[in-house]
Amino acid sequence: MRVSGQSTDYLRISPSRALWSVCAPLILVNLVLAVTTTLTNRLYSQYAGPTYFTVTGYLSVATTLFVNVVSSVYTAAWIKIAHQFALHDHPTVTRAMKNAGFTVLLASAACAGLMLLLTEPVLHALNVPPAFGADARLYYILYLIAYLPSALAALFLTIVNGIGSSRRIFWINIIVICANLLAAVLLLAVFRMKLIGAALSSALGAALHLLVYWFLFRREGYFRAGERFRPDWMQTAAILRDSVPIALQNLFCTAGYLIVTLQANRLLPSDYITVLSVSLPLTGIMSAITSAGLAFVPPNFAAGNAARIRAFLRLSLVCCVLYGALCCLLYWTLGAWYFGILFQNRQIIAYGVEYWRWYGLGHLALGVVYPLRTFFVSVGRGKLAMLSGTGEFIGNAFCAAVLIPRCGALGRSLSYP
User: Fold this and answer.
1) Cα separation of 375 and 385, whole Å?
2) Which of 152, 174, 263, 275 has the fewest beta carbons under 10 Å from its own?
3) What φ, ψ does residue 230 adopt, rounded to 5°?
4) Is the CB of residue 151 less than 8 Å from the CB of residue 74?
5) How many CB atoms are located within 10 Å of the residue 19 CB?
6) Average pLDDT, stretch 199-212?
7) Which backbone phi and psi does 332 adopt, to 5 degrees?
8) Cβ(180)–Cβ(202) under 8 Å?
9) Quick check: 244 and 54 in contact, CB under 8 A?
10) Mean pLDDT computed over every residue of the chain
11) Cα 361 from chain centroid?
């Protein structure tokens, strides 16, 4: 087994050790993230006002669609280059990382450009009320334009989580969280940029992350000065091709939430829409298990280690299911306190408590979906992963067509579980 202070050999380390080496630091990180998210939400509430939550509630399906499509590209990019890190060939790995970054930026710019061209149709389709139209348009445009550094930072964080030791994963993710909080403090509390600051804070945080990644990889011998970059169009095409099934799975999910959002925006009050953008970063631990799967499965699949992959899949399923039950319990018990510190409107607080009761139930299913979907994607069976998206679409279509018109806010709250 080769485990240094900086990297972990997932071809030799045991499945349980692999899961723990990634999840342990990310679990600690998510505990910190839960605190910083609360602080950031309070900054949004104090300096951007309830308008921020209302606007993001109306736009959430559009911004989520964009982020999910981009995330499918950097996930596919990591899966495509993961095995190369085991070779310890710095020039080859550097070229692969540069081309992965180029592909992510290319895809992000193309998606952002398309969605910017469709700004007015999107706002119209989402039934954004005229009272929030100007703010929604401003936030939407700034968010899309500013997302490019966030996409590139997400790729490099995926790489760090996939090759780093537990210590490195912990400290890099803590730096990411602190950078995001610092960006929000600067733009909202110091410069008082209100909704503009809220839209740009993730981009500023990502720019700070990129500086950290640049220093880190340069210290490890990557990205040396004088190395010319030439796009490898074959690898770019392969990444984009592998990202299509992942993106389609996300599109199925998003399409379901799109029709739910359209119905909710059309039929439900803005006080209820406001609570839909408020959540805790609890799925981060499930994402940690996903990160462990993305670190462990691709290189072992390439090496033909089927027994190791099966053992890892069983272990990750058990951990995710148990954690999903814990998430459900937390959403059931924390609603009144959490919404009470963000809002003074009693109706919004009541809507938030009720929404979280049903939202928490969805995490029971996520405990099964997360590890299975990651497994299929990691072994190149992205089409099978699309089944989860199909199921979400059917459930959401039923809520949009039947439950929201008949049950109102309860019908929308049921869409997630």
Assistant:
1) 9
2) 174
3) -125, 125
4) yes
5) 22
6) 93
7) -70, -35
8) yes
9) no
10) 87
11) 20
Are 147 and 70 within 8 A, CB to CB? yes
DSSP 252-317: HHHHHHHHHHHHHHHHS-HHHHHHTT---TTHHHHHHHHHHHHHHHHHHHHTT-HHHHHHHHHHHH
Cβ neighbours of residue 294 under 8 Å, at least 6 residues apart? Answer: 75, 78, 79, 82, 158, 161, 162, 374, 378
Q: CB–CB of 206/150 below 8 Å? A: yes
Whether 142 contacts 160, CB under 8 Å = no
φ, ψ for residue 164, nearest 5 deg: -80, 160
Decide: 94 and 256 in contact? Cβ < 8 Å. no
- Closest by CA to 231, choosing from 76, 81, 101, 91, is 101
The pLDDT confidence band at residue 114, using thresholds 50, 70 and 90, is very high
Residue with structure tokens 């989520």?
64
> How many degrees, rounded to 5, is the angle at CA 404 between CA 403 and CA 405?
95
For residues 144 and 75, give the distance between their C-alpha atoms in angstroms, rounded to a whole number. Answer: 20
Q: Are 226 and 97 in contact (CB under 8 A)?
A: no
Q: Tokens 């796009």 — which residue?
A: 231
**For residue 7, what is the DSSP state?**
B
Q: Supply the DSSP symbol for 34.
A: H
User: How many residues are listed for the chain in this entry?
Assistant: 417
For residue 385, pLDDT beyond 50: yes
Q: Which of 102, 86, 31, 61 is nearest to 284 (CA)?
A: 31
**pLDDT score recorded for residue 239:** 92
DSSP 182-224: HHHIIIIIIS--HHHHHHHHHHHHHHHHHHHHHHHHHHTT-S-
The first and second tokens of residue 74, run together, are: 């950097």
CA angle at 392 for the pair 388 and 393, rounded to the nearest 5°:
115
Amino acid at residue number 359: Y
Question: Average of pLDDT values for 383-391?
Answer: 74
The distance of Cα 175 from the centroid of its chain, to the nearest Å, equals 17
Backbone angles phi, psi at 166, to 5 degrees: -60, -40
Lookup: tokens for 216 = 């880190």
Angle at 80 between CA 22 and CA 63, to 5 degrees: 75
